[in-house]
Amino acid sequence: MSLICFCSLVSLNNSVQASPSEQTEINNLANITNIKEDEKGYIWLSGQQGLSRFDGNEIINFSSNNKTWPLPFQWINDINFYDDNILISSETDGVWEFTPKTGEINKVNFSLKNNGIYDAVYFDNNYYAYGFTDNILYTYSSVTNQTKILKEDIKIRDFLPTKEQLFFSSSNGVYKLLNDKKVEKVFSQYVEASASNQYGVFFSTKNSLSFIDNSNALTSISIKSAITSLTSASDEKSIFSVDRQNRITQYSLPELNEIPHTYPQVDTGYTRNLLHDNSGTLWKVGSKGTHQLIENEIQNHTLIYDSYFNKISSAVLNNKLVIGTHGEGLDNFDKSNIIIPLKINDSLSEQAKIIITLLAVNNQLYLATFDGVWRYDPQLGTLEKLNFPNNNAIILNLSHKNDQLFISSDNQGAMIYDLKQERITQKIDATYQLSSLEVIDMLPFNNGDIWLATEKGIDIYYPKSNVVKNISVPGPNKVISLLFVDNKVFAATKGDGILVYNTEGVLLSVFSKGIDFKSITFIKDQIWAPSKSGLFIIDPVTYQTSMIPNTEQYAFVNYPTLFKNKLYFGHQKGILAVPLTPTSQYHSPIHISKTTVSGKSYLQNKVININSSNEVITLSLASLDYRQGRKKQFKYQINSGIWNDVYGNQLTLTGLKSGSYYLTIMGTNSMGQWSDFQAFTRINVAFPWYWTPKLRVVYVVITLGMFLLTLWLLYLRGKSISYIHDLLSSEAKIKSKTTLTISRNLSHAITLCTSANDTNFEEKDKVKAILQQSINELKTQIQHKEPDGLYGKELKVAVPYFIEYLHKKYHVNISHQIDIHEESISYELKADLYKITYEAFTSAILNGDGSHFSLSLKQHNEKIWLTINDDAGSFSHFKNKISFDMAMYYIRQIANKYNASVNTFDDQEQGSQLVISIPLMKLS
């Protein structure tokens, strides 16, 4: 049953073959006439389809058939760059200038006999064009706006501009343009292929390759096969050629010495165009389409065995590489240098011939097999099973430390085998609380602790306390390998990425999710991590994960073996040799290749201005590394915020609030390494009409004004309250002092009058009577309260009584009219109406000179109207908000209680009026 389960596991691990890199649209383009790389790193192609731009993900085609990206024509014979423009030679419509930044196109005003142009170039402030129909070489000056014919009856193959001179090749040689605009022949043989860079021109004949530099020095070498295409290397220090046998050759400049390279020799048909871009990709355009080739420093050794799974492991024994197969036992890597006698496999059982991994220790080879652990001793020539109880399990892994063999089994847990004592010294099995008895890998520490990767997670065995601690693992996939580096434990999983723990088992980080890793190892300061989707190198400090170029096609299955400064990785079709020296990182240009705002697209990366937050912005992102490898990743940052991941190569933004945003974009190259280059753009979201900067200034001014007004009103209120307090205090003191003083003085006067010896007794009696009357009046005022309240009476009773009281006390005349339905209003309201009347009259009489008053109390239009008139302007001071008496304060408080309005008026006859209206509807 264990065998069936493990076979199912192995089947799952090995059934997925690494698929080749996805083919892009560019591979399907036909009839390409030229291919160029611009200064930014975009690839441009011309042909019968028009003009195409490729950014590694998307092709944008410019032609008369494309309404989004239109050109006045479709068929293009050639393209050449100068400054920021592309010079286009059209089949039927002359020469045009195309500006990639803006997408604008303008016609060059050549005066041509025929509009069919094969090639055109801009050099030294002049345009040059070749009309293939009439075989005429033209020149055009934009200064004089004149076209001249330089040479007739000539068949030009290519214009060849250098930094200092203009050459061109034809069917019968190579020509040079002289300073006086004359043409001079500098080479007189049939030219098969030609190209140029800033240092000179290089061209081939049937059996030679030549180079002419800017000083006109000629270098030539013989070649074995005719060259069909030439191109300059991206650094312009060498050139590449492709001959009729599809062989790629690299030559140094100017010597034309052959340089070894590792580009694959692939049959891509007849090659018409060749390009070496900045990422090191060699483009071949020919009869079988467009192909991208990258240097291949790795070497694959195909090893196919007659077994159910072609799972290969390796080890170094006696300075020779040996192979463990998955069904045929041991084998020699180098068949000419045998260390493993083939008959030795007869000593293995059939199950033992299924080898999971090999481990060389002390010049002996240990085999983890489907039938326990076996050992091969090359000195004795013996291959035998280790002698310990129950050594018949499926062994998943072997590791070694301090003369101890750590054995991971499929269903019996883990064991420690002492190599000196040749016995099992420790078993970690079902007697312990392991998360699973299927132990996939073991990691021993110097202090004796052992980490175990099991089917269901990670366990830590503490030998001092003889206990097992279970560590939680995020994700459902198995942990397949453990590694201790930089005081951290790296756990490789079959899809949940690399888990990083500290030595206590606390999870620190997770990265590279989605990759099905195999056994990882630490060599030359780097973690080497084979997987089902390629070979990766991991920096143990930064966790940056980089793919080794050309490994994405291999599905790796086991640990690597270091042999002769190379790492050998077993995979499903053999073993791959990888140099230890990694290739230098290529920092690919990162660009916003296309901007789409609410459905309208732009090529240039310009400031984006939108009118509202509802508009949708889509940015197509490009990392201009054309090597095959990992899918490129991007992340973006808005202003100085956090970095956010971009899913795919398109970033969509919407719902941005009004304001200005600065967008920064990072990307990886084809190997998964983050580039030092970044892309930038600015987004301006317009403010609503009511929130423009100018209106915001107005709002600030208004707000400031309202704030100052509020402060002023609060100040006035404070002054009013202070005035009220002072007034109350003053009145209280005055009344108290006045009353006591008058009472004392009057008493004293009576005493004096009584003791006087004046003979005028009649006058004495009068004075005495008046003074006694004053004393009685004061006593009455103190002892008897004024009619300042309703005290349960009706208004029709209380008001006349109050008017009579005022008449007797102050000798004023008051007329009144009361016309309200007292039964329909509350007693509280009636009491407040009386209080207003009391305060208004007493204040007007005491503070004014009026002697005639009138009172009107009416009910009309759901309101009660209280009107008081006088003949001397007594109510004019009621308007003052600061200097007012307590009567006006009480009146306004009652008015606010009922939402009533209080108004005062002055008439022309020196009188005044107080009008108070109280709404009855709101009261109900």
Report on the structure:
- The protein is α+β, with helices and mostly antiparallel strands and 924 residues long.
- Among the domains are: 103 residues, Lipocalin, CATH 2.40.128.630; 79 residues, no CATH class; 73 residues, Thrombin, subunit H (Beta Barrel); 97 residues, Immunoglobulin-like, CATH 2.60.40; 97 residues; 137 residues, Histidine kinase-like ATPase, C-terminal domain (Heat Shock Protein 90).
- The chain contains 7 helices and 68 strands.
- The strands form 17 sheets. A 5-stranded mixed beta sheet has the order 57-63-62-59-60, with no helix packed on it. A 5-stranded mixed beta sheet has the order 64-65-66-68-67.
- Helix 2 packs antiparallel against helix 3 and helix 5 runs antiparallel to helix 6.
- The longest helix is centred in the C-terminal third of the chain and has 63 residues.
- The chain is elongated, with a radius of gyration of 52 Å.
- The N terminus is likely disordered.
